[in-house]
Amino acid sequence: MKHLIASIPDIPDLLRLRLAGTLVLGLLVALLAMAGTFRPIDNAAEQLTFSLFERPASGQVQIIEMDAASMAAINRWPWPRDHYARVLEQLDAAGVRSISFDVDFSSSSEPAQDAALGEAISASNAPVALPTFGQSAGFREARQLDALPIAVLREHAHLASVSVAPDPDGFVRRMQLGTVTGSVARPSIAAFVAGRAGSVNQSFPIDFAINPGAIARHSFIAVERGEFDPAGLKGKDVIIGATAIELGDRYAVPHHGVLPGVVIQALAAETLVDAVPIYGSWPAPLLVAALLAFLIGSATGRRVVAVRFALAGCLAALLWLVARLFASTWFEIVPALVLLVLAAGLRLVILTAREAQRQHRIDPESGLPNKLALDTRADTGDQRYFVAAQIDDFDALQLAVGKESFGDLLRRLVERLQVTGCAGSIYRLDNRTLVWSTPLDLAEIEPLLAGLRAVMRSPFEVAGRRLGVALTFGVAPVDLIEAAANAAHAASLAKRSGKPWRLHSADEGETATQQFSLMGELDDALREGHIGVVYQPKLNLVTERIDAVEALVRWNHPVRGMLPPDSFIPLIEEHNRIDDLTIAVLAQALEDMRIWCLRGLVIGVAVNISAGLLASESFANRVLALVSRTGAPAHRLTFEVTESAQFEDTGMAVAMLDRFRESGIRISMDDYGTGQSTLNYLKLLPISELKIDRMFVQHAHIDQGDAMLVRSTVQLAHEMGLKVVAEGIEDAACLAFLRTISCDYAQGYFIGRPLGAQDLADRVAEQSALAA
Questions:
Q1: What pLDDT does 45 receive?
Q2: In this structure, are 695 and 564 located in the same domain?
Q3: Fewest beta carbons within 10 Å, which of 170, 261, 468, 511?
Q4: pLDDT exceeds cutoff 60 at 142
Q5: Is 2 a domain residue?
Q6: Does 516 have pLDDT greater than 70?
């Protein structure tokens, strides 16, 4: 079939596909129809029409019924055949048009009785039909025996078939126009009564929409006795047969339950009064349905599919009824309807899948195409760069607008970008980043970005607010792998450096790769001891001895060597892993402090604590548990908190520092003087020490301004009961100045470079020995 479709010239590929799909569905339904799969449903549909189009009989066919009254009156079985002779004479005298018997006369009775009936048949003016039928020769035998009336009866009679053949489900739905018995073609009683010709074994459907109760019936015994109105039978076709239950000639039929065989014969004759209905089977409706299914398969929307399916179903049903009512052709409609259902269902599945795929490529908040749409876009080949526009202060802007209105702001923003010169589709790469491709070169991109930033200065009106939106841009060549992501990364770097835009360079990708590789190696480094601690000495300017140190983290990478803290600590903080690193440093410092205590060395250790950790209850619990477990003296432990840090929750940070202070841990304010809230922090935080930043200390002995700041800070701290550590000491003159202003501790390369735990212990021990 595929090759057949492919061989049709001048058909587009999509049309070929739809045509092939329709043919495959049609073939599948045809195979099922050939197997009789739909026959029960067709029977049910047919029965429904009998209810919808129920009508009375024409009155032309009437029944002389061998009923219970007749059985009681004659009171013997088989009936003597002179009874049939007298009924025949009465009917002929009444002027009936034809007389048909649905009574078995294939065996002889009393000769006189047989002769009387034969003479009545011979004398009748109306044609008389006697029954003939075939029956099985025995149980489970395929051989058929033909039953014919005895010779004395059939000499002047017509022979007509009364064979009834139920369907496999036991229901009688059809009758044959003729059969062969005794090697002679015989019409059925229905065909004989209606005067219809046809082929042997040609069957026709019985119209059970005809109301069997509307067929006139006359009791056999009443007719025999002349107790009837002859005028009511004049010109009529009568069929004589058994209706008494005890005679057992009864069959199941659609719509009416169980009917006597003679009534079924009468309904079959009534069916043939106007025309001979024929079976059109299922191929013709299926072919029409295939054409309609092809139209359904070309629908571009689910609503269109539903409308076309409804119209196609109605059209198919209408054609089916028209053929049934006006052309006497009974088609099987269910295979056609099944094909329409399958075609509509398949098309709905395809369209739903496409819609789901489309929805996957759309950002739900803004309605913009998303990263998936960007990754699957068609490459036109004329684009040079990706431009990423990153929304500055995204979180604050979203909070100001409200999440329900932020999508509207994004759409308004995109409209302004497109009007300003960003042609083509704009994609939402992530929450804060929009990206698009451009055929412009760099010389044209730079003024475009400057223009975009200028246009953004005009505020947006969203949800009753006037809001300004600032953008930072990144640019990357389209031929790079993950070019859009590189453009977004360039925008992030531009934002960090305070520039309006940045062009991605090749080495930035390698740097980012190395950074993220470090994040993947952090757990292994902590577990395998590659993360170590060194200690920078602090000189006590009162005792002139080293009795305190600052713990500094180092990463001895097995491939890259010793890594400086600035290369990994910011990344670890950004990825919320600083708690694990801090705990590792703290654990090592506490262990080293315990060993120093065993040697009789009194050395305090300061450990840096990120401000972000002061909002973590779990971190505080881990710290206190670790201090308690190691048994190191908590009063020799100092936590240094950077004064310039921004606490996520100041109240929670103060409460946590109070917990540390209550456990004996000292709190130091690091980098004092570089922040915006110095005095406020001095008031709020439970500190016991200030560390003056090196930018003020290293030139204080030669710069009058720095000297005044350092001196006043030391005085202020002492008045508040705080110790002071000055860092950044690099020469003797600076150290001498600190002594003159009564500073408590000095730290810097002039005092000592960072040392390992053992080397530091040896230096302190040597110093103690010299002092002794």
A1: 86
A2: yes
A3: 170
A4: no
A5: no
A6: no
SS3 80: coil
CA distance 605 to 639: 9
- Residues 688 and 756 reside in one and the same domain: yes
In 3-state terms the chain splits into helix, strand, coil percentages (rounded to 5) of 50, 20, 30
Q: Is the pLDDT of residue 724 over 90?
A: yes
Span 317-323, average pLDDT:
87
In a domain, 17, yes or no: no
Would the pLDDT of 139 be above 80? no
pLDDT for position 407? 82
Is the alpha carbon torsion for 212, 215, 216, 217 positive or negative? negative
Dist CA 186 CA 238 (whole Å): 19
Higher pLDDT, 400 or 545: 545
Residue-level pLDDT at 262: 94
Nearest to 42 by CA among 137, 169, 222, 152: 169
Q: Report yes or no: 588 and 581 within 8 Å, Cβ to Cβ.
A: no
Q: HSE (CB half, 13 Å, CA atoms) of 257?
A: 3
Q: Which of 542, 538, 518, 540 is nearest to 530 (CA)?
A: 518
Q: Is 510 exposed, middle or buried (0-12, 13-18, 19+ CB in 10 A)?
A: exposed
User: Mean pLDDT across the chain, nearest whole number?
Assistant: 85
What global pTM score does this model have? 0.56
- Count how many domains the chain has: 4
- Going 117 to 121 to 126 to 130, the CA torsion angle's sign is positive
- Whether residue 299 sits in one domain with residue 170: no
Residues 345 and 430 in one domain: no
336 CB-contact burial (10 Å; exposed 0-12 / middle 13-18 / buried 19+): buried
Q: Which runs of E-coded beta strand occur in 403-544?
A: 427-430, 433-438, 460-462, 465-467, 471-477, 501-503, 531-540
pLDDT of 234 > 90? The answer is yes
By CB atoms closer than 10 A (0-12, 13-18, 19+), residue 553 is: buried
Where b means 16+ CB within 10 Å and e means fewer, 410-442 reads: beebbebbeeeebeeebbbbeebbbbbbbebee
What is the residue-wise DSSP string for 5-58? HHTSTT--HHHHHHHHHHHHHHHHHHHHHHTTTTHHHHHHHHHHHHHHT-B---
Per-residue pLDDT band for 769 (boundaries 50, 70, 90) equals confident
Q: For residue 65, give the H/E element and its range.
A: strand 61-66
Q: Which tokens belong to 44?
A: 């049910």
Same domain for 390 and 346, yes or no, is no
- Of the residues 300, 335, 358, the one at which a domain ends: 358
Encoded amino acid at 517, one letter: S
Residues of the chain with pLDDT > 90: what percent? Answer: 37
**Distance, CA of 490 to CA of 473 (rounded, Å):** 8
Residue 28 structural domain: 24-44+280-358
Instruction: Tokens for 580, please give them.
Output: 């694990």
Residue pair 289/340 in contact (Cβ under 8 Å)? The answer is: yes
Supply the pLDDT for residue 137.
46
